[in-house]
Write a structure and sequence with these properties.
Layout: E1 2-4, E2 8-13, H1 14-20, H2 26-37, E3 42-43, E4 47-53, H3 56-67, E5 74-76, E6 81-83, E7 87-90, E8 94-95, E9 102-105, E10 110-113, E11 121-122, H4 148-156, H5 172-180
Parallel strand pairs: 1-11
Antiparallel strand pairs: 1-10, 2-4, 2-7, 3-4, 5-6, 7-8, 9-10
């Protein structure tokens, strides 16, 4: 999967978040606490858009707050600056400095963990933040047809009141229940 970029994004590997919040419950704790409080958090199996901003003056504060967790942000190796434990990536241009663990996809305005497939994009309103891997599919409960894209779109619609923005208003289990009981439009859902 890949993470959709929106304005200015702070991207962190999930394993790093697991370490930072280890005593509180790791990445699961982060998803439940931070993800439930803000519509700026979305993730795939490898990386997470853990924070973001709409303007550059706010980025300094965001970087500082993550460095307060003991993470190293922008590092100067003598050969140049690069992102180490987290990365700031701007919409439509990607990482602001080199980041050896992150790949930018300009076509989809998304980033992914280097070397990992990025067939699906996760982001605000996609409804896909609750899918755990690209092998997850949603089938119509009535006819059995694969309707993953239709179902996650319905999940993100505001009139459903569901997971738009993903995971902000309902729990992962509520969203999964919706997807597992989804009836496609063709069958009358």
């Amino acid at each position: 999967m890949a993470i959709k970029l929106e304005f200015i994004n702070l991207i962190v590997p999930n394993r790093t978040i697991e370490e930072v919040f280890g005593e509180q419950g790791g990445f699961e704790f982060f998803k439940q606490s931070w993800g439930a409080m803000t519509d700026m958090v979305w993730y795939d199996d490898h990386i997470c858009r853990a924070d973001g901003a709409m303007n550059w003056p706010d980025v300094h504060d965001i970087v500082g707050s993550w460095e307060n967790y003991g993470l190293l942000g922008l590092v100067d190796s003598g050969a140049g600056k690069y992102w180490k434990d987290f990365c700031i990536a701007a919409s439509f241009s990607g990482p602001t400095y080199p980041c050896d663990w992150l790949e930018f996809d300009a076509v989809n305005n998304a980033v992914s963990m280097r070397g990992r497939p990025a067939a699906q994009v996760v982001g605000k309103g996609s409804g896909t933040a609750i899918l755990e891997s690209t092998s997850d599919t949603v089938r119509c409960k009535q006819c059995g047809q694969i309707v993953t894209e239709e179902a996650v779109t319905a999940l993100g619609e505001t009139e459903f009141g569901g997971c738009y923005p993903p995971m902000s208003y309902q729990s992962d289990s509520t969203c999964m229940d919706f997807l597992q009981s989804y009836i496609c439009r063709q069958c009358g859902g």
